[in-house]
Task: inverse folding
């Protein structure tokens, strides 16, 4: 609190700035620090993407300007297009899974006949509070390729053969999806539940009087009323899926043999594993541009920044 | 201080409610049973409710099963691994807290010898050795580096919180209550970053690493805290601003008519009334530094590893020692889990801000 006091006092006493824009001084420190650690690295990343920087050259100050060469190399690399494809596939499958799971759980914990709903909701969003690295390493254990990982134990209980989850391409991809869904479901549930609670009770009663069953009511009353918030949540969670790094990195470094490298993992590995900072920077910038355009379209279309105006 | 004591009393209420919940539900059940006996409630309805509730409870249990599995693993000891060949264990075969002892290690304050020069005389002071926990008594000889990681995490997280609060609170107040040039641009930028910023950290890692090395900041925990504070600014400023928006302006107007200076309005009205928001922001900024992994792993050397990096370094070895890993992971995550459980209503409130009410 004392910080605010002194800042406000200092601002009030200062004769230099014009009175109307005094509050700007309260915002500037935060903005400055933020830009120093975000905007400046972005600019530097742009610069790096035009050079042949490697650890050996960069830290001697001997990196050379190579123009668009990195972008040409990257965009003509099959590995890049594979990553791009896998990333969008991952976005599609994981978002679909997350919306389904979120809706399902949301319906369960708002069910009319369920007792102890508040307690269940409190329990269910626990994973939201867990550090990502904790959750993901746990899930790596679950999908352990060994005979006795938890996923394989379930398979065996069902009388099936065990699977080498992380060394088969699509099995690893499936494991990413399941883990991503588990990571994101608390967020989806929170939004779905708050949307479900806003669904008008009268509409439901009216539909019931008209003889609509549970599914008819879900389809014609519930779904239309929660469509917007759920759409909003899926756009946000799509961005999260696109930028997923930790799951593939911790599971099997985007393997087997680089087939599941999501874009960010691909860029990270080019830079830090294969020491190509320039190419890595180019990949990251392409990824940022793609997600930027994707989000911009969604912000425009879905009016995500509505809150700014009603302040 | 009143802010903290208010939060504490709310937490106490929560804890009381949590403890009393079973008692309340027993009361409920008794009431229902009486209802059935007296014929006020039909048994079929009760059965249906019980069945559906049971179904919901099974869903909840399945969702949280991975966490339970880890807990079982942590109590299983080194010998009995989670990887039992006899199917899934719901209870450790031979419960032991040995993995936790391995994680925490000795808690011994060594004795210090303090010498004071007093005019030609020298006085020696020998502090006693304080033993809280000596794990070698329990047959645990080697221990984890948890304490070192913990200390590292604290030295990263505390400066992060201090710096972030200094940056966030004034901005949030100004954005909520004042008009100035560029206000809506700053807000718009913050919101946009909040929604796409998550992965930008990894995308920028190459540049960040190169810059930190060139400035000689790599392996500096303070520089890492500054970075965390910077990344925490947009979301938390926006969050606190929306809290402050909810405080009626009429309070301030009343104070202003009574002649209160504007700094006094801030300390006497705005800050006390936004304590829930302040608590949320405090927790969020603390957890930013406490849980971040990728950047910390890239920038810090082995000696300065924070807890998340330390946790991952256990996995990095050729095979994961599951019992120890689980105990380590739980010791790391359990306090965070508790904080979240109690702070949940604030977080839920915070997440439903802005455009979410479609």
Result:
């Amino acid at each position: 609190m004392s910080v605010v006091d002194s800042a406000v006092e200092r601002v009030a006493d200062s004769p230099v700035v014009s009175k109307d824009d005094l509050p700007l001084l309260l915002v500037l420190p935060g903005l400055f620090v933020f830009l120093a650690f975000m905007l400046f690295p972005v600019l530097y990343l742009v610069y790096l993407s035009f050079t042949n920087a490697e650890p050996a050259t960069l830290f001697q100050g001997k990196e050379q300007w190579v123009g668009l060469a990195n972008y040409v190399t990257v965009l003509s690399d099959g590995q890049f297009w594979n990553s791009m494809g896998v990333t969008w596939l991952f976005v599609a499958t994981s978002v679909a899974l997350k919306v389904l799971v979120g809706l399902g759980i949301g319906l369960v914990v708002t069910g009319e006949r369920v007792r102890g709903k508040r307690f269940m909701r409190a329990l269910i969003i626990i994973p939201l509070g867990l550090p990502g690295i904790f959750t993901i390493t746990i899930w790596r254990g679950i999908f352990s390729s060994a005979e006795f990982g938890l996923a394989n134990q379930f398979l065996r209980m069902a009388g099936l053969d065990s699977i080498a989850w992380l060394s088969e391409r699509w099995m690893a991809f499936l494991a990413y999806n399941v883990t991503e869904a588990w990571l994101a479901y608390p967020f989806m549930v929170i939004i779905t539940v708050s949307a479900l609670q806003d669904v008008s009770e009268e509409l439901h009663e009216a539909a019931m009087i008209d003889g609509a069953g549970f599914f008819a009511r879900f389809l014609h009353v519930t779904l239309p009323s929660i469509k917007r918030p759920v759409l909003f949540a899926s756009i946000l969670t799509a961005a999260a899926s696109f930028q997923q790094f930790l799951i593939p990195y911790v599971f099997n470094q985007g393997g087997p043999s680089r087939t599941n490298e999501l874009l960010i993992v691909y860029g990270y590995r080019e830079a830090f594993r294969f020491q190509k900072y320039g190419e890595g920077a180019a990949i990251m910038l392409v990824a940022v541009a793609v997600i930027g355009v994707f989000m911009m379209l969604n912000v425009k279309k879905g009016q995500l920044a509505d809150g700014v105006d009603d302040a | 201080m009143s802010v903290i004591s208010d939060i504490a009393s709310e937490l106490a209420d929560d804890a009381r409610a949590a403890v009393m919940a079973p008692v309340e539900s027993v009361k409920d059940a008794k009431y229902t049973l009486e209802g059935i006996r007296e014929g006020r409630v039909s048994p079929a309805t009760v059965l249906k409710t019980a069945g559906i509730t049971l179904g919901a409870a099974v869903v909840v249990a399945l969702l949280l099963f991975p966490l339970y599995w880890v807990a079982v693993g942590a109590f299983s000891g080194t010998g009995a691994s989670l990887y039992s060949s006899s199917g899934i264990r719901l209870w450790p075969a031979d419960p032991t807290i040995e993995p936790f002892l391995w994680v925490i290690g000795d808690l011994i304050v060594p004795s210090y010898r303090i010498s004071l020069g007093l005019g030609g005389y020298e006085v020696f002071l020998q502090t006693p050795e304080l033993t809280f926990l000596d794990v070698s008594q329990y047959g645990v000889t080697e221990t984890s580096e948890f304490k070192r990681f913990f200390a590292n995490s604290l030295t990263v997280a505390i400066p992060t919180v201090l710096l972030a609060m200094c940056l966030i609170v004034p901005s949030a107040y100004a954005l909520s209550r004042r008009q100035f040039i560029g206000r809506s641009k700053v807000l718009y930028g913050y919101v946009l970053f909040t929604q796409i910023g998550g992965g930008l950290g990894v995308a920028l890692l190459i540049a960040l690493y190169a810059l930190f090395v060139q400035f000689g900041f790599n392996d500096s925990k303070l520089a890492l805290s500054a970075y965390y504070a910077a990344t925490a600014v947009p979301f938390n400023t926006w969050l606190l601003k929306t809290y402050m928006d909810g405080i009626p302006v009429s309070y301030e107007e009343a104070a202003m008519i009574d002649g209160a200076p504007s700094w006094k309005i801030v300390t006497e009205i705005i800050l006390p009334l936004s304590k829930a928001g302040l608590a949320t922001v405090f927790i969020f900024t603390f957890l930013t530094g406490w849980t971040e992994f990728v950047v910390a792993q890239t920038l810090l050397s082995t000696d300065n590893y924070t807890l998340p990096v330390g946790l991952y370094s256990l996995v990095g070895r050729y095979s994961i020692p599951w019992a120890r890993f689980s105990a380590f992971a739980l010791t790391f995550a359990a306090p965070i889990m508790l904080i979240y459980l109690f702070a949940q209503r604030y977080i839920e409130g915070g997440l439903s801000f802005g455009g979410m009410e479609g």
Notes: The beta strands of chain B are 107-109, 113-118, 121-126, 130-133. The first strand of chain B starts at residue 107 and ends at 109.
